[in-house]
Amino acid sequence: MCTLEKRGDFFILTLTGENDDHRLSPTLIAAVLSALREAKSQATRGSVLITTSQGKFFSNGFDLGWARSAATPSDAFLRLHQMVESFRPIVAELISLPMPTVAVVQGHAAAAGFGLALSHDYVFMRSDRGVLYMSEVDLGLPFPDYFSVLFRAKLGSIAARRDVLLRGTKVRGAEAVKLGIVDGAYDGEEKVKGAGMQLAEKLASRKWNGEIYKEIRKSLYPELCAILGLEVDKPALSKL
């Protein structure tokens, strides 16, 4: 499942299980959402969220096996819809979390797993293992509305969006850096984790007001906030 550890200014959210591909089942989605809300409730100036995983996967997307195990195709569709809609609040929480967020992608991040990583402010991945992959075009599945808006908001390059979403390109570390999808790619678990922690330390040292930080972030993505049901507030000067 997942764990949330508070270590000084850091909240470290880990998708656990060395042999797990961290499929976003209803159970894991609920656990991640609960962890994010717990981090939000304990946020102070200087807080930073770091999300990572164990094993060779960051997350392989929604639990399609669970959906397909339903008794009928219509029930399978309802299960998939359930996961799509229950994942929406996770994206909303990350976009509105009152602290900087860093994803340390230790391995493959596919479909909703890619979306989970991209919902963070900063993304680091390994260059020696793992790909970023939106599998929907290969599987014949449409994109949820908020996925399309998320990728438009986060991937500035039209060519990158085309290759990722319309070609199903499996993007490795060096190419992901070149396309502006991730902020750095490193060989090995320790180096990528170290890069993420080093940035987190720099961010934490700024001791920013989290409420102001989250409103600035939300203001950068008005279309995404609208589809997620997030209001963009103007914090009172008393909060400064």
TrEMBL record:
<comment type="pathway">
    <text>Lipid metabolism; fatty acid beta-oxidation.</text>
</comment>
<dbReference type="Pfam" id="PF00378">
    <property type="entry name" value="ECH_1"/>
</dbReference>
<dbReference type="InterPro" id="IPR029045">
    <property type="entry name" value="ClpP/crotonase-like_dom_sf"/>
</dbReference>
<dbReference type="GO" id="GO:0005777">
    <property type="term" value="C:peroxisome"/>
</dbReference>
<keyword id="KW-0443">Lipid metabolism</keyword>
<dbReference type="GO" id="GO:0004165">
    <property type="term" value="F:delta(3)-delta(2)-enoyl-CoA isomerase activity"/>
</dbReference>
<dbReference type="InterPro" id="IPR001753">
    <property type="entry name" value="Enoyl-CoA_hydra/iso"/>
</dbReference>
<dbReference type="GO" id="GO:0006635">
    <property type="term" value="P:fatty acid beta-oxidation"/>
</dbReference>
<protein>
    <recommendedName>
        <fullName>Delta(3)-Delta(2)-enoyl-CoA isomerase</fullName>
        <ecNumber>5.3.3.8</ecNumber>
    </recommendedName>
</protein>
<comment type="similarity">
    <text>Belongs to the enoyl-CoA hydratase/isomerase family.</text>
</comment>
